[in-house]
Amino acid sequence: MSDSEGSNGYLWFITGAVVGASVALLYAPKPGKESREYITSKADEGLEAIAESGKNLMDQGKELYDRGRALAEEAAELFERGRKMVQG
Question: Is the pLDDT of residue 73 over 70?
Fold first, then answer.
């Protein structure tokens, strides 16, 4: 499984957990106000987790971009050196 598939699965897991917890709490024997406050707090936690996961994905993407760019620059330098060697 690639990193993006793992992160995507993580996001779906968090989303499912939030939805499942919300449904379970709607049927819980707590007063409505307490249930709504609990759901709100858990939804906020879920949003924070998703935001953090998105930030991690963005950081990974930037790292991959930087590595690819460095490889392309190195390849261009090698090509140029080879061209100069062939030309004499």
Answer: yes
As a whole number of angstroms, the distance between CA 46 and CA 19 comes to: 10
Q: Which long-range contacts (CB under 8 A, 24 or more apart) does 12-21 make?
A: 14/46, 14/49, 14/50, 14/53, 15/46, 15/50, 17/46, 18/42, 18/43, 18/46
Distance, in Å, from the CA atom of 41 to the CA atom of 2, rounded to the nearest integer, reads 32
Write down the pTM of the prediction: 0.47
Q: Would you list the DSSP string of 6-30?
A: HHHHHHHHHHHHHHHHHHHHHTSSS
DSSP 3-state assignment of 37? helix
